[in-house]
Amino acid sequence: MTRPLSPSHAATLGRLERELAYYRRECNDLGARLLRLQEEQSSAFREARRSRTVAKLIREAHRLADTGVPSDELAGPVLEIIVDNTMCDRAALLSESPVGSGRFTVLRAIGLGEQPLAVSVVPDPPSFFFTTAQTPLESPAYELTGILQLPYVLWAYDRSTGYALIIGNRLEANVSRPFEPGDQELIEGGLSVYLDVLARRRAEEAQILLMDELNHRVKNILATIEAMVGCSAAEAGSPEELAEALAGRIAAMARTHDLLTDARWRSADLGDLVEEEMRPYAVADRVRIAGERQPLNPRAALSLSLILHELTTNAVKYGSLSVPEGRVDLSWSRQVHAGGPTLRLVWRESGGPSVTPPVRRGFGTTLIERAAARDLNGAARLSFETAGLRCELEYPLARISPPAAAMAPRIPARQRVRDSVREDVLAGTRVLVVEDELMLTMTLERILKGVGAEPVGPATTVPEALFLAGSERIDAAVLDVNVADEPVFPVADMLREQGVPFIFATGYATDSVIPARHKDVPRLPKPYRQDRLLQMLARALARESASGDG
After folding, report:
1. Exposure of 474 by Cβ count < 10 A (0-12 exposed, 13-18 middle, 19+ buried)?
2. How far apart are CA 36 and CA 50, in angstroms?
């Protein structure tokens, strides 16, 4: 028989039971907190491991790119790096074509055998996705698990490029845990590494290609100029004639290069070529031009520019443009023939001196006939009529027209000189020359001294130019846009504050390098043409003088 507890014992027992219950709750709470702490530690460890993995991917992938692997062979080595660092069973890099279609082609796969799926269709592909044992087998899980033929996959997709990366495992826990939302950093990091390295290699390859193309074009230009020197020297009667002929022909090439550069070397319009060449003489109705828009490919544009220059130079020296009452009519039109459409140009002079056939064939005549026939598979007919020279050119449209994709509108870039100004306003002026190329400096000094101007400098660096602009009397300035690899605009700012007129000299065909505050400044294209340089400087001085008088 159990003895009843005394009131004091019963009270003590109740107190002990309450304390036991309290401590039991505390122990449970501590256990829960410990579990949460362990999970946080585990999560932090997994996050740190993912970050270390991505960092390692970046290092190894860029080290791979340093070895010079071609961009179209990067997918395999980069995927191997991803598999080694993520410890997955299978992986694949895919490319969507066209972007946005949901049709993916496997670029490279690991663990799928010799023949992975050629094309996989993933409707509305997600940017990030993963599967676990609880993921229902419906879209997109159905399509994504089908790519690797595994139940547990981790997927990342870049919508802007159409590239995707997918890794997968046979067992949910074969990497100690299932995939989770935090793995987005890992899979997107792996895809980003591939895209970054791919973009880097493509940029490097494009740079090499551009350098090769630039080298090719420069050598072609030098070879052409070398040939011009030889042919011009053979017919020149004096060094002065040789210099004048060479300067004109090189300037014609330079103007055409500007037109082509404006259109990204895709095409140039025939009307623009004619305008560039004939502008100095298109006054008082002396030059009449008629013709519709006709795009030309670069080869045709360069060839026709030289032909037009030879015709114009001959007209100015000996033909209709050598006398005030003479004129030139230039027209072009498309013709239809059984062999295909052609472009026919007719140059006709009138009102000039009586014409007689030349005793010998000069370089200009030979260039016109051979450029038409050999360069463009066309024909040239020169008629030395008593009333004036007549030249007919005819070319197959297929040989002179650019591809349809290249027929883009030309970007207006050059500032054109239209009105003539008396160049004697330059006599006695002091002109600051900022140019770092020796031969160009000598050319500028020769031209300026020839009209009685005094060159100041030349300054070959920006600090030197700033010193001269601040310490010397300057009436005008010619500033090369880039001097010793440094923009010249601080000098332009100082001259503008002082009220000194200046022009920019540049080899750039567009004004993209000119800051907005100086967009109104005239630009002198290289190579330098004496008439254009002097006209620009004279106009700048006249404009400054007019504003000062006002």
Report:
1. buried
2. 21
User: Can you read off the two tokens belonging to residue 323?
Assistant: 């006398």
DSSP state of 509: S
Distance of alpha carbon 419 from its chain centroid, rounded?
Answer: 34
Give residues with Cβ within 8 angstroms of 424, minimum separation 6. Answer: 451, 452
**Nearest partner of 195 among 107, 117, 109, judged by Cα:** 107
Claim: this prediction has a pTM higher than 0.90: no
Q: How many CB atoms lie within 10 A of CB 337?
A: 9
DSSP 371: I
Q: Is residue 102 a contact partner of residue 122, using CB atoms and an 8 Å limit? A: yes
My answer on whether omega of the bond before 501 falls inside 30° of 0, hence cis, is no
Is residue 91 within 8 Å of 165, Cβ to Cβ? yes
Nearest CA among 207, 192, 204, 157 for reference residue 61: 192
Q: Which residue has the tokens 């890992």?
A: 186
Rounded Cα gap, residues 295 and 443, in angstroms: 35
Q: Residue 165 pairs with which residues in a beta bridge?
A: 93, 156
Nearest to 270 by CA among 233, 289, 295: 295
Rounded CA separation 330/51 (Å): 71
- Taking the CA atoms of residue 274, residue 279, residue 280 and residue 281 in that order, the dihedral angle to the nearest 10 degrees is 70
**Degrees to nearest 5, angle at CA 492 with 491 and 498:** 90
Place of tokens 């030098």: 222
pLDDT in tens, the chain (550 residues): 566 767 777 778 778 878 788 778 878 887 777 777 766 665 655 666 666 777 778 788 778 878 888 888 888 888 888 888 777 889 999 999 898 899 999 988 988 876 655 678 898 999 999 999 889 989 899 999 999 989 999 999 999 999 999 999 888 765 557 888 888 888 888 898 889 888 888 888 888 877 876 676 677 667 667 766 776 676 667 777 777 777 777 777 777 666 666 656 678 888 888 887 887 776 667 889 898 888 888 888 888 888 888 888 888 888 898 888 889 999 999 988 887 899 999 999 999 999 888 877 777 777 787 777 777 788 889 999 989 999 999 999 988 888 764 454 544 433 333 444 455 678 899 999 999 888 888 888 888 988 899 999 899 999 999 999 999 999 999 999 888 889 999 999 999 999 999 999 887 766 678 888 998 898 888 777 777 888 889 888 887 666 655 5
Respond yes or no on whether the N-terminal peptide bond of residue 98 is cis (omega within 30° of 0): yes
Q: What CA–CA distance (Å, rounded) separates 200 from 412? A: 32
Task: Judge contact between 505 and 527, C-beta under 8 A.
Answer: no
Alpha helices in 361-503 (DSSP H): 363-370, 397-400, 438-450, 462-471, 489-498
The tokens for 137 are: 């087998």
d(CA 277, CA 270): 11
The single-letter code of the amino acid at 383 is S
Count of CB atoms situated within 10 Å of the CB of 400: 23
Q: Is there a cis peptide before residue 7, judged by omega within 30 degrees of 0?
A: no
- Is residue 257 a contact partner of residue 414, using CB atoms and an 8 Å limit? no
Are the C-beta atoms of 328 and 348 separated by less than 8 Å? yes
